[in-house]
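Posting this for the archive.
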Amino acid sequence: MESLEEQWKEFFGSGFYTEAWGMRTDYSKTKEQVDGVLNLLGPVTGSHILDWCGGWGRHSFLLAQLGYQVTLLDFAPNHIQRAKNKLARKKYRKLKIKCLCKDFRETPPEIQADFAINMFTSGIGYLTQEDDLKALQSLNLALKPKAKFLLDTMNLFWIVKNYQSDSGRYSPKDERVLVEKRNFNFLENRNVSEIFYFNGLQKIETKLDHRLYSALELINLLKQADFETLEVYGDFDGSPYNFDSKRLIIISQKN
């Protein structure tokens, strides 16, 4: 049986996430999410923002285009290379984006960002709680004093209330199919998924095991990492956090 770390690295680092899981990503909402980040954090143009576990920079590029200095950190070499390839294009060469291929548990302390964002349920929850705490502690050291941190993840209570044991996506453009079969571990609040991806004659099977934290659990974890929670929201529009919120967004500040 694969360890959580092996599963995490295979799912995100093998290229599967880039090709298949992208079917679940609504790219049209990227600007809406970035607008929400800016409204909730209030950074001055030119501020240094760390896109922590930021994949290939879906949010980083838009932030940089709006005049912010961005550090994009992700552990997967294929994600960082994809971002670097995009930066090499004439259209993006002048953007202030620094790409770092690093494990989020070892976030370089010399980054010293003014703000940090962790978007789309990335990083936190895929390993152990001890790993998550270590990652948050390393993030704390990589930020300037009083820097603000926005954490965006799924709402445990909405997931349980609207639980789907099976779901699928179909792309009529290229006839790709993504099927997910889920089981919920109520003793550990972990969502365990078997995932099947079909692209023509290609078939890929993989697994994903993710811990869903409640707001209280994350607030306590952030406190242990020396962050003070300032606000909790249910979406990027600043709406209240409740049973009907699909997202859990926590704004905290480095002590």
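The radius of gyration is 18 Å. The first strand starts at residue 48 and ends at 52.
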